[in-house]
Predict the 3D structure of the following.
Amino acid sequence: MNTSSNRRDFIGKVITGAAILGLPSFSPLGMQPVLGQEGMKISTDDPEAWLNKITGKHRIVLDVTRPHEIFPFAWAKVFLMTNQATDATENNCCVVVVLRHEAIPYAMKDNLWEKYKFGELFKVDDPKTKAPATRNPFWMPKPGDFSVPGIGNVEIGINELQSSGVLFGVCNMAITVYSAVVAQKTSADPQMVKQEWIDGLLPGMQPVPSGMWAIGRAQERNCGYCFTG
């Protein structure tokens, strides 16, 4: 097994033990507590206000838990395209994309992908080079980057979907956990790594208390649910 696989397996075990079981810290692993109230604070726009942007008759929330080729973003485009084909305008549709667990790097800028080797860590290949991505492949893609047989080129970049009114949220819980694990592996300050990740979020990317919180709140606002695989 290669080094990147070992590192990813290690992180997966830590995430399973801490995030899923809800442990308040990583103290058993010799780390400073990072998941208390201080570690979980969000200093960005109010997520409740972000939820108030959910409007329109046709609503869906996409649950994105991991990299899965183009599907996390293609489904948002499919929802909009097929609603338009049945005489529903974009203004009457709303798609909420929640990036959580291993999908959080899609919420971040290219410089963080390069610095923290997100492509290796989360097993995301660049669609152009087929090597581990050192950039966010779904942020400001070039025309023709993504093509679907029978349909042709599709505009499924995050910025392109945002232009169509798609809302994006990212799990603060997962950011807290993953940044702490990376900090441990690199002997860095977990609070500084987390803040760097928060500062490096893409424009229009809303941190939410947790992905589960956002999915639940979206469904309370009459969004249908779709797991992206």
The first helix runs from residue 3 to 20. Residues 114 and 211 are 25 Å apart (CA to CA). Residues 16-43 have pLDDT under 50 and may be disordered.
